[in-house]
Amino acid sequence: MASTTLGASRALGSTAAERLITAVRRKSGAMKRLVERSEPAPAIETDDVQGIVFRGYGRLPCCHYAFLQVREPIQARAWIARVASQVAAGTPRAERFALHLAFTYSGLAALGLPERALRGFSREFIEGMYGDHRSRFLGDVGESAPERWAWGGPTSETVHAVLMVYGADRAATSERFQAEQELWRESGWADVHALPTCPRSGREHFGFADGISQPAIEGYHEASSTYHRVRAGEFILGYPNEYGLYTDRPLVDGSRPGALSLPADVEGSTLRDFGRNGTYLVMRQLRQDVVAFRETLDALTRNEDGSPNVKEQERLAAQMVGRWPSGAPLMASPHQDDPSKARENDFGYHREDREGLSCPVGAHVRRANPRDALEPSPGTEESLTVNRRHRMLRRGRIYGGELPPGAVDNADRGLMFVAVNANISRQFEFVQHSWIVDPRFNGMFGESDPITGASAENIFRVPGNPVRTRCVGLPRFVSVVGGAYFFLPGIRALRFLGEAEGFVGKPGEGTE
Ligand code: HEM
Questions:
Q1: Ligand 1: centre distance to CA 368 (Å)
Q2: Strand-pair category, 216-217 with 229-230
Q3: Taking all residues of the chain, what is their mean pLDDT, rounded to a whole number?
Q4: Which protein residue has the closest C-alpha to ligand 1 atom 38?
Q5: How far apart are CA 451 and CA 332, in angstroms?
Q6: Candidate from 6-20, 112-126, 350-364, 454-468 with smallest mean pLDDT
Q7: Is there a single domain that holds both residue 276 and residue 293?
Q8: For ligand 1, atom 19, which residue shows the shortest CA distance?
Q9: Number of domains within the chain
Q10: Is 211 in the pocket of ligand 1 (CB under 6 A)?
Q11: What is the pLDDT of residue 511?
Q12: Is residue 510 scored above 90 in pLDDT?
């Protein structure tokens, strides 16, 4: 089954890659030099990259998010300068707290970032997460429609920035958050939305270990297998990406006051690079309907006498996810959970399980990362090359209280999904649209991701020999309650934004 076509990714396999490279060459008016994989990877300036790119802060389990709006740009910039000195970089490693600060496009415009730099951001970042076409494409319809979002949508207050405060425990994190809150409120910022998170169990609300399978950044996480080693430029601007090119970056005229504090343009122009060591963050607050999830599993697995079958509920849930609650992949342990395999991650699908008999082809992890099952040559290095162009670092956090077994309530709980990627359209948007939402994924029909797909009448097929199971009428278990695209600047760029003279600090006036 896995050998059938993955339509959109097949297109990206070769021809679209060439189109992309040609477009980059045309845009710059010059032939850009391809940086071959065989060349030594450039050293990553870890002390200039915000640390969330490199780590998920497992040792800092609480994270409070504040979504903010600029009211007084000049004061607001002074606050940024202060936060810039406290933001956690990749090195040295943050021990007790980690602060991170990122901005939406309208936030950077409101702060008066020069026009030339604003023009250098990617189209999807400039346009933002919602809009007719984009919302349909991402599956943000019905209950998930942006008009209903609590933040980031067209009917809620405009979000300009997000501050993330990570800490070791609830009390210390809240205290630190409140201290920061007093400062931003005195400094020309207003609160739009806040979300404190402090999970207790370490599992997401459907009961599964999360955050296991991540790409490894080449030049930083050295020891990973070929399945996960990805070039730094896929996650950090200013380094070669999986096409051997530098993703477009926002550049600033070198003659602007303060601009010389920014890194030089790695491609050799006289401009300074506001983007280098920065990246894009995709943030989506995803509400999980745990009651519906459990009731659906129960209804689909009852014994013939009508009694509940807890073991079968767990099996079906694991088939939907592609891993058991401990995290053990079905590919390594198809019949029961095996916590000793919880971290296993070096496997492909095409050779080992083409038909999906161990891990259903429609399972969440198999859709979100089909690994070696991609066209044009499934099961080969070429397939993994295509795959590497669609990876993301996930840095999400669980929010809301756990629902005890057997309990029913209407509380808001879910996942603050946070993805780090250098190209939102090729990474997050592609995965969300073509692999998670698309009902024709991998030659299927009418089947969206069983965990986080957009369909309200979903189908999930579990291949079996001799009998396959088909679950129909699955409700939507996950809905979007807020979201936005952010730019996470490097530390020098953050300082420039906060300190450089010559910003007029009013939207549209920071022109060059
Ligand atoms: C509430 C919503 C979601 C839940 C409960 C959820 C849960 C999970 C779980 C339990 C895993 C397996 C553990 C791991 O490898 O980390 C996983 C993996 C993954 N998820 Fe999600 N997820 C959600 C939303 C999303 C979304 C929206 C995306 C992307 C657009 C996504 C992308 C991925 C990826 C890329 C993997 C790793 C797959 C691999 O490399 O094998 N997830 N998710």
A1: 7
A2: parallel
A3: 91
A4: 365
A5: 21
A6: 6-20
A7: no
A8: 365
A9: 2
A10: yes
A11: 43
A12: no
Same domain, 416 and 364: yes
Q: Are residues 241 and 301 in the same domain?
A: no
Residue 22 forms part of a structural domain: no
**% of the chain surpassing 90 pLDDT:** 81
C-alpha–C-alpha distance, residues 26 and 471, integer Å? 49
Residues 193, 332, single domain; the answer is no
In angstroms, what is the span from residue 436 Cα to ligand 1's centroid? 10
Ligand 1 contacts CB of residue 330 (under 6 A)? no
In this structure, the answer to whether residues 267 and 312 fall within a common structural domain is no
- Residue 223 banded pLDDT, cuts 50, 70, 90: low
Bridge partners, residue 394, by sequence? 419
Task: Tell me the C-alpha distance between 50 and 298, whole Å.
Answer: 44
Could you tell me if 268 and 396 lie in one domain? no
Residue minimizing CA distance to atom 31 of ligand 1: 368
Report the 10 Å Cβ neighbour count for 18: 10
The Cα–Cα gap between 496 and 489 comes to 10
**Alpha carbons 190 and 188: distance in angstroms, whole number:** 7
In a domain, 349, yes or no: yes
Closest CA to 372 of 343, 394, 351, 393: 351
**Residue 373: which domain range?**
289-482
Q: What is the pLDDT of residue 396?
A: 96
Which residue from 369, 379, 378 is spatially nearest to 361, judged by alpha carbons?
369
* Ligand 1 atom having least distance to the Cα of 288: 1
Q: Which amino acid, residue 399?
A: Y
pLDDT tens digits, 54-73: 999 999 999 999 999 999 99
Cβ 451 vs Cβ 256: under 8 Å: no
Residue-wise pLDDT tens digits, 315-349: 999 999 999 999 999 999 999 999 999 999 999 99
Specify the pLDDT at position 94: 84
* Residues in Cβ contact with 433 at an 8 Å cutoff, skipping those fewer than 6 apart: 8, 137, 138, 139
Whether 440 and 341 map to the same domain: the answer is yes
283 CB under 6 A from ligand 1?
Answer: no
Those residues whose C-beta lies under 8 Å from the C-beta of residue 324, and which sit 6 or more positions away, are: 208, 314, 318, 330, 333, 336, 337, 338
What is the amino acid identity at position 138?
A: L
Could you tell me if 368 and 392 are in contact, meaning their C-beta atoms sit under 8 angstroms apart?
Answer: no
> How far apart are the C-alpha atoms of 399 and 290, rounded to whole Å?
13
> CB of 161 within 8 A of CB of 107?
yes
**Among 24-28, 172-176, 409-413, which stretch is predicted with the lowest mean pLDDT?**
24-28
Q: Using CA atoms, how far apart are residues 504 and 454, in angstroms rounded to an integer?
A: 43
Residues 382 and 260 in one domain: no
pLDDT in tens, 179-204: 999 999 999 999 999 999 988 777 99
